[in-house]
Amino acid sequence: MGALNEAYTGDVHGVRGADYACYREARRAGLRGTFRAFLSSRVQNVNSIVRQADRKLPVSNLRGEVLFNSWSEMFKGDGAPFPHPPRIYSFNGKNVLTDLSWPHKAVWHGALVDGVRALDTSCDAWHAASRDKVGLAGSLKGPRLLEQTPYTCDKKLILLCIEATSELFSPRNRRDVDNRYSLINLNDTSFVFLHRPFIYLRSLIKSGEFGKKSRINVEKCT
């Protein structure tokens, strides 16, 4: 688990835009696993981000220090209590709890205490940065990651990324990489959809986040 290199308002171009930011910064940091945004949205619960086979593994920070005993343990309904004070680092190596780049030591998540999406408190599906919208966040100085504290969406908070598929399971040959990542351009905004990109695209269309007049270009990328 790591943080993006700067603080963000509630407008991150939707959860797919946040996923792409996690993918991009992880790759620039030399990490080969698949990182996705720690966010609930209209199309996903935060507790479902990590693949089933990895949910019993410890959750660690980018330096290998254990934050939670397992992914599954985080979503038992008690709000993901920290077993000890967390140390979370950004992809460029900064400690988000001590660095001034993050004025508010709270993490956007938009989820209920069990990791299920909270539809009315996710900054309009992470497209809003206004004071009249709110999103749920949890303080890294508090006892639980999934605290149910509403913040107005103009606040700049920490955005976490989680390694949804580890490097151990990442493809090794170029053909597999080409088949695994697709770049989809929606209204001139690029997003990388990880794993079964057309399933994500289908869910995006069903959710209404994708208008009929949107222009779609699909191309392979690595």
UniProtKB/TrEMBL annotation:
- Gene3D superfamilies assigned: Mannose-Binding Protein A, subunit A (3.10.100.10)
The Collagenase NC10/endostatin domain extends over 3-164
Which Pfam families does this UniProt record tie to the protein?
Answer: Endostatin
What is this protein identified as?
Endostatin domain containing protein
